[in-house]
Amino acid sequence: MVPEIEKASLEEIKHFQEQKLRELFVYLNTNSPYYRRLFRKHKISTEAIQTLEDLIRIPTTSKEDLQKFNDDFLCVPKKKIVDFVTTSGTLGEPVTIGLTDADLDRLAYNEAISFDCAGVTDEDILQLTTTLDRRFMAGLAYFLGARKLGAGIIRVGAGIPELQWDTIEKFRPTYLIVVPSFLLKLIEYAEQHTIDVNASGIKGAICIGESLRNQDFSLNVLAKKIKSAWNIELYSTYASTEMSTAFTECSEQQGGHLHPELIIVEILDKVGNRVPDGQEGELTVTTLGVEAMPLLRFRTGDIVAAHFTACKCGRNTLRLGPVVGRKQQMVKYKGTTLYPPAMHNVLNDFPEVDSFVIEIYSNTIGTDEILLKIATKSPSEALLQAIKDHFRSKLRVTPDIEFVAEEIVQQLRMSKLGRKPVSVIDRRS
């Protein structure tokens, strides 16, 4: 099911995307109040945007823009919207994204080719361990994509290891769609109930929300812990509600593949210039084929590196490396720049740590502070000192650490409106 454009030459892919970009520019100028206003303000004509290089002439769109002018991004009458989803906003209130029938078809196509990228076929059954409700786009995308691909899908929802294992044993799915740290919960439950995970029939997991790999694509600590107990293939997938598009690993597991018919990618530095190939920068996307709320040069806030060499799987598309961190979650702590994923890796080295949450806040003089709240069944001064020493060894600094009850960590990780657990709470103003 690999689209021909993904196997085309880089030059052919570029020409294809430039044609799609010209079509998008005309569409936005005709239908988007927000972008029409932006083009007029900056005196950008339809003829001015012909190539991918011309994109640099257009100001980027931020999540704050999307929140402040939410309705002005809508390109169709509201009666054409058949599904409403929301995503977190920078100003407190969630951002609403509307989808038309055509957008749902695009979402299904995106997820079908993404599943195919990870080796899923119409012979497989997927078990969905994330929510399908609460205005959450991802769960809907997985369901629609499985149907489009012709695979089976079981909608179990989040949490409840007992129900997950009951479903695995009854229906024998072959893939899980899962937050990777939840796989450790499934392994723990299996060990407690004499379930042989390697006789379960699960051959792979499509992993969302947490990184599995280091920047060189080697398995990180979390992935190694999973693989040491459960011999299944782990595939990373990265997406966001705003771009309605996923970047999923193939069998080579060397980064998430771009779907050039669905999205244009730029990697930008702090001042908005494109970084050299292979260097880290902020992922900035332009959506293609979106009817209701297409976005032009949307800054995702995620820091990544792009890789451009041809993949052994036959695709010639750009691949995104693991997310280094969220731009807004970058911490300058005691002179050291940190991103939460680096702290995740340190904590994942300790089997005694059952769960944790990272709180970031500002002190009285306006500098960043970090507090780790850790749940463990065996709190001790020795464990605390070992964690601190490991932080100094790996990251050169040691955050404040306190042991708390598991219930407190879980309450912090899931807000009342939460659709997926969070491991970072940023309390900076």
UniProtKB/TrEMBL annotation:
InterPro entries: AMP-bd_C_sf, AMP-dep_synth/lig_dom, ANL_N_sf. Pfam families: AMP-binding. Residues 78-287 form the AMP-dependent synthetase/ligase domain. PANTHER family: BLR5969 PROTEIN. This is AMP-dependent synthetase/ligase domain-containing protein. The lineage of its organism: unclassified sequences, metagenomes, ecological metagenomes.
